[in-house]
Write a structure and sequence with these properties.
The chain is an alpha+beta fold. Helices cover 40% and strands 11% of the residues. Strands 2-1-5-4-3 form a 5-stranded antiparallel sheet. Helix 2 (13-20) crosses helix 3, helix 2 (13-20) packs across helix 4 (39-49) and helix 8 runs antiparallel to helix 9.
C-alpha cells in the first residue's frame, strides 16, 4: 500500500525516506514486508505522501494499529462547533448559493439561495443521496440551463478525474465514468454564453452561467475546507461558495424574495431543504 501511494506521488524510496526522516533501507524493508513500521513512522509517511484521512486509517489498520482518525457524524453533540461553523458559512453567504459536500460529491447541506438553481431538475436527482456532480452534468439535471455547459462540463470532469487520481477512491472513479458517458441533445456540448460580456474576456476563474430566476446568472466559485482536521468526517467536507461574476447577478440575487422560491419541489430528506431557519 505504501509503495502504491509512493508511486502515485512520483517519489523514489530515497526521496520519501528523506522527507519522513528514516532510511531508504528501512522503507524498502517496510514495502516488501520484511519490517513492520511503527505507528509514528506510518503517520509521518502518510503526511509526506498526502494520503487522504480515510485511506490513512486503512493503511494504519493494515499495519495492525488502531485507526488514527475517528469518523463522527456532523450532527453528533461534540461536533457542535464544526456544525455551527458550517451553518454560519452557509447562512452568512446568502443571498449567494453555497453547498457542502463530501469526498464523493454527495451533498450534505446547502443554503436557501441554492434553491434558485434547481428549477427544472428531475425529482429523482433530488432523492438522497444528492450528488453535486451528477446534478450538474445529468441531461435531466442543470445541464440544459447552463449556457456555457461545454466549458463547465470540462471543468467538472477535470476536477473529478483529478480527485479520483489523488485519492485513489474507487467511488470517484465510478462516478467519473458514469457522468462522462452521459449523452446530450445536439448542440449542448457546443454551447456558449448567450450574451458574452467584454469584461469577462479574461476570466479569473472558470465561470458558471446558468438561467435562473428569469434571467442569466453568472458565478465564479471558491472552496473551503477544515485545516488539519482530526476527524474523517471533517476532513472529507468541502464547502463551495458561489460569488456573482457581474453586477447584474449580484443585483438579481439581492433583490429576490427567497420565500417565493422555496416552493421548488424537493423530496423529503433532501439536504437542500432549509435547516430550521
Amino acid at each position: 500500500m505504501l509503495r502504491e501511494w509512493r508511486h502515485r506521488r512520483n517519489l523514489s524510496q530515497m526521496a520519501l525516506a528523506l522527507l519522513a526522516e528514516t532510511s531508504s533501507r528501512h522503507l524498502s524493508f517496510i514495502e516488501t514486508g520484511r519490517a513492520r513500521p511503527s505507528r509514528e513512522l506510518l503517520l509521518r509517511l502518510c503526511d509526506q505522501l498526502d494520503v487522504p484521512v480515510r485511506q490513512r486509517n486503512g493503511l494504519i489498520m493494515a499495519a495492525g494499529y488502531a485507526p488514527a482518525y475517528e469518523e463522527t457524524p456532523i450532527g453528533e453533540s461534540h461536533m457542535d462547533r464544526a456544525n455551527e461553523a458550517v451553518e454560519r458559512l452557509l447562512t452568512g453567504h446568502e443571498p449567494y448559493p453555497a453547498l457542502v459536500f463530501d469526498t464523493v460529491s454527495d451533498l450534505c447541506r446547502a443554503n436557501r439561495s441554492a434553491m434558485a438553481l434547481l428549477d427544472g431538475v428531475a425529482e429523482e436527482l433530488l432523492l438522497p443521496p444528492v450528488n453535486v456532480v451528477r446534478l450538474g452534468l445529468h441531461p435531466m439535471g442543470m445541464a440544459r440551463r447552463i449556457t456555457n455547459f461545454a466549458e463547465w462540463r470540462r471543468h467538472l470532469l477535470s476536477r473529478l478525474r483529478r480527485d479520483a487520481a489523488f485519492t485513489n477512491d474507487e467511488r470517484l472513479g465510478a462516478l467519473y465514468e458514469e457522468v462522462r458517458a452521459y449523452r446530450y441533445p445536439s448542440g449542448l456540448l457546443e454551447s456558449e454564453p448567450s450574451t458574452p460580456d467584454p469584461a469577462e474576456a479574461h476570466h479569473v476563474a472558470i465561470p458558471l452561467h446558468i438561467r435562473a430566476l428569469g434571467t442569466e446568472l453568472r458565478f465564479f466559485s471558491a472552496v473551503t475546507a477544515f485545516v488539519a482536521p482530526a476527524d474523517a468526517t471533517l476532513a472529507e467536507l468541502t464547502i463551495e461558495t458561489f460569488y456573482p461574476a457581474d453586477t447584474h447577478t449580484a443585483a438579481t440575487l439581492h433583490s429576490h424574495h427567497w420565500s417565493e422560491h422555496l416552493r421548488v419541489a424537493v423530496p423529503e430528506g433532501c439536504p437542500l431543504l432549509p435547516t430550521g431557519r
